[in-house]
Structure to design on (556 residues):
């Protein structure tokens, strides 16, 4: 009886230890330490940062949404089914799925690689920044070419 | 008589043209810089005497020489951009500019110059500002002999020391920058020179070049910066006689080149860096008469580089002289001195009689499997390297210096 219990216990432990191998959410970006996986620059402005999270659970980090797209376009096979995220411009700890984020674009944003696109959670927060930076609205379909 | 009157008239009119000097200080005519600026005319001089001036944002919209005597302090109280220069033909010299505000919307600087020309910013001390000196849409400006320091506590709240954006014909001379994000930052800046600056201990890059063509940087020292110096997406850059040293870290380089073409790297010293030069996507670059000493990697040349010439350099005491990640070789090596060269010189022409293969087998293995570094200096690795030298199999056999020097060049 005891033996049976222990073996179940071991099984459970093993089950969970295998579970933890798979990463389910992307790693956070370490500012001024992580490098952009496309252009190699050290990421120093988290507000424009973007993340590509592959099906296998690997995180690729980028300093600008244009770098994310360049990398995705250059590595189509590797990135099939990957989830793409952008930082919320007003709260750079928060990652937004690229498909649902609201975007503005304008030269005054001065993003690290000249993509000059900022992402927001909702239209309301984008509106104020759009005025401040004299930017224009854009959307994921336009950006994602 | 007529002539006398004419002379008198002439001299009297020129009298009106003479610029005046105004004084600002505790016991002077003007008590604040703003009140003096409101009264003066173009071409006047303002001497500012010792004291602490907390005047918020001072906008300079007249052509003026603003001269500090014994370093008067302009304090932004962590709220304001301190000096905003919007007029041409202006000189700012001899101030201690400190505690600028912080905002990511308009990037306030200690001294920020807007859309103008012929502005000189000389001999100032900039202490604890978000951006130190910031130039945008400027031309023919001089930034000289300033000492710029910041203390990076909150990482994101640090701007660049000297930040130049969409400008032309700038001279950045003899400045000292430390503790900022990038020491000197160039984006869309053309026909400019960066000469004799010292950039050390900055959080990211000592010098950061992006989309800036036809510039040169000469005789600068870049030391102990987070990731060295980055020159990216640029062509026609001249890099002469600079020192790149003590840039250590997984992704730190003496000089990081990405997408550069038609440029010259002459007479520089790369000493004690993780990688002396890291090249990606560079073409038609001449690397001549440089010293690569005591680096982890002397040069890392990615397979995306082509038509680069590496000529007459000294490679001394590097763990690996050269490394690459592919088998394609489109770059040439000639007449370099390699301290690992073990050939002989029977005809005594000071050039080794057998070619040198700077790419060791192990450096190729490490490039593809970094953890293999654990085996470095083991017996097997040494054996592999030796056998590879005799019969190249994994390393590209045309990756060679046909005329390796027997003695180091005097550089």
């Amino acid at each position: 009886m005891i033996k049976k219990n222990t073996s179940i216990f071991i099984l459970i432990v093993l089950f969970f230890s295998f579970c933890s191998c798979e990463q389910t959410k992307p790693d956070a970006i370490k500012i001024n330490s992580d490098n952009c996986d496309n252009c190699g620059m050290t990421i120093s402005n988290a507000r424009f940062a973007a993340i590509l999270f592959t099906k296998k659970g690997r995180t690729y980090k980028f300093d600008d949404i244009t770098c994310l797209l360049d990398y995705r376009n250059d590595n189509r096979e590797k990135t099939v089914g990957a989830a793409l995220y952008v930082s919320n411009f007003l709260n750079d700890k928060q990652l937004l799925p690229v498909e649902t984020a609201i975007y503005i674009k304008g030269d005054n944003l001065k993003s690290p690689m000249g993509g000059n696109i900022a992402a927001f959670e909702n239209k309301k927060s984008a509106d104020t920044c759009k005025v401040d930076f004299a930017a224009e609205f854009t959307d994921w379909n336009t950006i994602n070419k | 008589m007529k002539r006398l009157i004419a002379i008198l008239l002439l001299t009297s009119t020129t009298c009106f043209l003479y610029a005046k000097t105004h004084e600002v200080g505790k016991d002077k005519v003007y008590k604040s810089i703003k009140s003096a600026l409101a009264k003066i005319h173009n071409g006047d001089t303002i001497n500012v005497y010792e004291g602490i001036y907390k005047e918020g944002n001072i906008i300079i919209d007249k052509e003026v020489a603003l001269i500090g005597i014994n370093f008067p302090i302009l304090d932004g109280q962590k709220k304001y951009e301190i000096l905003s220069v919007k007029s041409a033909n202006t000189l700012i010299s001899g101030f201690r500019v400190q505690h600028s505000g912080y905002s990511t919307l308009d990037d306030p600087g200690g001294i920020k110059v807007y859309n103008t020309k012929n502005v000189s910013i000389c001999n100032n001390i900039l202490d604890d500002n978000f951006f130190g000196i910031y130039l945008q849409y400027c031309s023919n400006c001089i930034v000289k002999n300033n000492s710029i320091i910041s203390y990076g506590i909150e990482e994101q709240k640090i701007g660049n020391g000297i930040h130049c954006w969409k400008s032309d014909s700038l001279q950045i001379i003899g400045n000292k920058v430390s503790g900022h994000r990038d020491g000197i930052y160039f984006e869309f800046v053309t026909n400019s020179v960066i000469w004799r600056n010292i950039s050390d201990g900055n959080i990211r890059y000592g010098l950061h070049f992006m989309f800036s063509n036809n510039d040169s940087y000469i005789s600068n020292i870049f030391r102990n910066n987070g990731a060295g110096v980055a020159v990216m997406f640029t062509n026609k850059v001249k890099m002469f006689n600079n020192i790149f040293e003590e840039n250590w870290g997984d992704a730190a380089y003496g000089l990081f080149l990405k997408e550069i073409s038609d440029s010259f790297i002459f007479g520089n010293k790369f000493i004690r860096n993780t990688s002396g030069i890291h090249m990606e996507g560079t073409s038609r670059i001449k690397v001549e008469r440089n010293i690569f000493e005591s680096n982890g990697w002397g040069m890392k040349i990615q397979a995306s580089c082509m038509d680069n010439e590496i000529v007459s350099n000294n490679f001394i005491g590097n763990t690996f002289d050269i490394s690459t990640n592919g088998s394609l070789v489109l770059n040439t090596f000639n007449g370099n001195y390699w301290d690992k060269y073990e050939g002989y010189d029977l005809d005594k022409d000071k050039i080794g009689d057998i070619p040198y293969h700077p790419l060791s087998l192990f450096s190729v293995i490490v490039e593809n499997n970094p953890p293999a570094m654990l085996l470095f200096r083991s017996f097997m690795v040494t054996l592999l390297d030796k056998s590879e030298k005799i019969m190249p199999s994994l390393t590209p056999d045309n990756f060679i210096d046909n005329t390796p020097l027997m003695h180091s060049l005097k550089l």
Summary: The CA atoms of residues 2 and 90 of chain A lie 57 Å apart.
